[in-house]
Each structure stands twice: as structure tokens, then as C-alpha cells.
Amino acid sequence: MLSRRDFIKGTAAGALGLATMGVLGACGNGTPEEKPIDIKWDKETQVVVVGSGGTGVSAALEAARAGASVLILEKAGIHGGTTNLSGGVMQAAGTEAQKQHTKFQDDNPENHYKLWLQAGEDYVDEDLVKDLAYGAPEHIEWLTDLGLKFTSVYGHCHIPYIDDSLFADRIHVYEGGGDAGTGSILVNAILDAALAEGAAIEYETEVTNLITNELGEVIGVRAEQSGKEIMVKASKGVVLAAASIDHNVEMAKDLSPQQYWDLTTQTCLCAATDTGDGIRMAMEIGAATAGFGGTIDFCGKTGAATDNRVDLFPSFIVNKKGRRFVCEDATYAYHYRAIFQQEKQLNGPTYMIFGESSLLAETAPWTKESVEEDIAEGLVFKADTIEELAELIDVNPDNLQSTLKTWNQDMKAKKDNQFDRQTGLESIEGPFYAYQNVAANLGALGGVKINVETQVLRPNGEPIPRLYAGGLNAGGWIGPYYPGSGTAIIGTVHWGRKAGANVAKLDPVE
């Protein structure tokens, strides 16, 4: 059994106007009457990659290996973005590593695809999900060839409406990975290979606009570098790999209510440079968006339901009325979506309720000593009776008492008759505690709309010529909540690789 200390250490890991510069006054301010002008390019390459997280470096490596000249433009002073802050874990089915490290000897991409599709709740693009699931195993081999050694494989927690037969241990961990901040190992391995193939990267360069020609083809970018505006030609095209709207409050308010809630009332752990630049720029030249609404949220304090190696300790979550409303050990972003909805619907916080007896569980996130420290800091409330606890947290005492009574009655038979919880099925005895839930956010879900070739699409489904996107800069391949650790990272590699390979195939524009 994984220790609680080791588990908490790794939870953040496991656990988003037409700019036609050929027209005078460009970047959306040109008019049809204005005359085309020649652009003075400050730099020229064949492929520009915007962003150097997992998606960007994967795109750069594949484009360089295909023979294209590649320039990565990175807004920050360091590569990696939010991928750096992750544990670098990634999901795949049917790999040799899965067979070596788990009991799932016959798992396959079809089951993986079906699970992701059902978790998408009809909001995802079925073709994208299938392409990702079937492509995932090869990426593990690709990364192995780059020097990563996969040393363990585990699974994510259940989702109540999905049949257990579709689940398997698919979350791959490489040597040195799995803890917060170890995603940098992945990024460095890919970037080093890209640089060895001739790709280049320039830091502290903020791409601000896409540049199109009279045919609507994306032929370059405008950027800010060292306090100056520069024009960078991309004769084959541009790959957008600049994450989602993680730290953009205005775009979140317009596009993603849960991300807006996270940014204004919760805690966002993403790289500060993730401000939706790639999405905004693509929208300015007519790109459609897809998949907005969900987030990657989890409980940073307890790591509740982050993966299937650690059972949730005896506890339950209640809303402002003092009632349970969700299966608490369902995968973390699933139950955090419900927490968000309840807090907005009832205009009040939700709480994790547990008892003195709960602290005896092997997987309890608190000890008797540590919980007293949190009480002193005002993070946890304590009372001798459930009614007194209700008064402390301002919820209906009759409802909270009834909730506890129902829980304890169900626990006599070790069965949750309300929400089909699977772990932590023990009675809860006082004194009683309450912890106010706070989401730790690892990114928004949603981005520009793409097809399986990673071409960015207009609302009518037509591709914008020479514009590609992947990872969390693209949407439609993850549904209204994050389905489990390792989904995002395998997506960055998958869509990044495809984008880089596809743009490199194009004939250059003059």
C-alpha cells in the first residue's frame, strides 16, 4: 500500500478579427480597401511552434525529424510550461510496460477509447478520442526510445456510471517521474532530441498575433522580444501549443464557469504564462472552439480519489444544506465538478466531514496531531457532536445529523446505498471534524477545434490553412470533467507529434 506521505507528495503530479499582416494596419484592423504591403521579416523558418510544454516540444521534434527547420517561441524564460509542474504520467492501454507491471495482460485501446468516450458524456469528438486511445501505446515506445524508462503503472479511481470492466491500470510512470515537478524530465528528453535534430528555441518571446496572407494561410507570427516587435515567417505553418485559458480570468468568465470559479475563489497551480494566447489568436482569425467547461480540479489537501492505489478514508462530503450529493471516491475531477455545481447552486461552501474514528484509517490524510494543527490554523473545524459541528460550519443540523445517521446505517452492511462509493466504508464516530473543500486547479479544459490531423477548424468545419494545434490548446478530446491522471500528458505527446509531422509535410509558401 502506498504511504499517505508519498501519495500526497505526488497528487499535484497526477494529478488547460482576421490578423492579415499582408494588409496595411494588420492584426485585425485592416480593411478590404487597404493595399497589401510587403512584410519585413525579422526571422524566417519553416515551422513556428508557439509554446514549449509537452505539446510544443513533441511537435518540434517530429517536424525537425521530417526535415523542416523549426523555431519554438516560448513566452517564459524556461521551457516546459505546466507540463513541468506535473508528474509526467500518461495513460496508454496494451503496452509492454502495462503487461510487465500490472495484472492487465489483455487490456487494449478499444476499452480505453470506450471509457474515455463515456466519460466525455457526448461532449467529445468521437474521432479525436479514438485516435488518441489507439495512438497512445506507440507514444510510450517513442518515449522509451528517447531514454525514458517506465517503472510502474497504476490506475485512476472509478466513475459511477461507467462499467468497471472498462477500467484498467493504464497510468504509466517513468523513472524519476510521478511527483509534482517531474514532468520536466519528459520535456527535457523531448526538447534535447529536437535540438539535436536542428530545432531552435527562443525564450521570453511572447507571440501576440498570427500572420496570414491574402489566401488566408497562416504564414507567420508577430511577437514581442526584448521589448521589440518582431515578425517571424513560418513558410510551412504554425503549431499552437500554448495551453488553455488557465490564468485568463476574462476568457474563463466567457467560456468556462468552473475555471472562472477556480481563478476567483480557489487555487490555480498552472504556469502563470498559461493565459490562452494560442486560443485567442486562433479565434481572431476565425477559429472555432470546442470542449470548454471542465477543469482539472482535485483536493490538494487530501489528494482524495487521485488514483486507485490509496483508498479514500471514512468521510463524506456535504453541501450547504448538510446533505451528501456525490460519490466521494469517484475520480477527483468528477466529484470536484459536483462540488463546484453545489457551491454555485446553493451559494455556499461544501465540507468534508469525518470523525475521530476516521483518523485510525491507514490512508487518513490527517493524524490526531496534524488535524489539531489545522484546527489551530482555522482550516478544520472540530466539535464533540454532529449538531455542534453543524453550527460551526453553518449548515442545517437536522440534515447533517440525518446524513451521518444514514451513512452509519449503510456502513453496517459495508454498502453505500446512495452513491455507490467503493472505499472507506466504515462508520464515523465523534468527535467530528469538517474541512472546507478547496479546489487545486491544474488547468482548464477546452481550446480551439481541431480534426484528427490537428488542423485548426473554422465554425463551418473547414481547416484554416497552415494552422495546427494540440494538447490543451485544442479542445474536444476531453469532456466536461478530467477523466483521470495521465490523460493530458499523453494528449500533449499525441497531438503535438501529429501536428509537427503534418505541418512539416507541407510545401513552403514563398
Short descriptors:
4-stranded antiparallel β-sheet; 510 residues; 8-stranded mixed β-sheet; 15 helices; 20% strand; single chain; alpha/beta
Provide structural commentary.
This protein is an alpha/beta fold. 33% of the residues lie in helices and 20% in strands. It is built from 15 helices and 21 strands. The strands form five sheets. Strands 1, 2, 6, 7, 8, 9, 19 and 20 form an eight-stranded mixed β-sheet that branches. A four-stranded antiparallel β-sheet has the order 13-14-16-15. Helix 2 runs parallel beside helix 7 (183-196) and helix 13 (386-393) crosses helix 14 (397-411). The chain is elongated.
Cα separation of the termini: 61 Å
Largest sheet: 8 strands, mixed
Overall SS class: alpha/beta
Strand content: 15-25%
User: How many whole angstroms does the radius of gyration measure?
Assistant: 24 Å
The number of helical segments is 15
Number of strands: 21
Output mean pLDDT.
93
Which runs of at least 5 residues are low in confidence (pLDDT < 50)? Answer: 1-36
Residue share in helix: 25-40%
Shape: elongated
Give a topology summary.
Elements: H1 4-14, E1 43-50, H2 54-65, E2 70-73, H3 81-85, E3 90-91, H4 96-101, H5 109-119, H6 126-145, E4 150-154, E5 171-174, H7 183-196, E6 200-202, E7 205-212, E8 218-225, E9 228-240, H8 249-255, H9 257-265, E10 267-268, H10 277-284, E11 289-290, E12 295-299, E13 316-318, H11 332-346, E14 351-355, H12 368-376, E15 380-383, H13 386-393, H14 397-411, E16 432-436, E17 439-444, E18 447-449, E19 455-457, E20 463-469, E21 474-475, H15 487-504
Parallel strand pairs: 1-2, 1-9, 2-6, 9-20, 10-17, 18-21
Antiparallel strand pairs: 3-5, 4-5, 7-8, 8-9, 11-18, 12-17, 13-14, 14-16, 15-16, 19-20
Helix pairs in contact: 2-7, 2-15, 5-6, 6-15, 8-9, 13-14
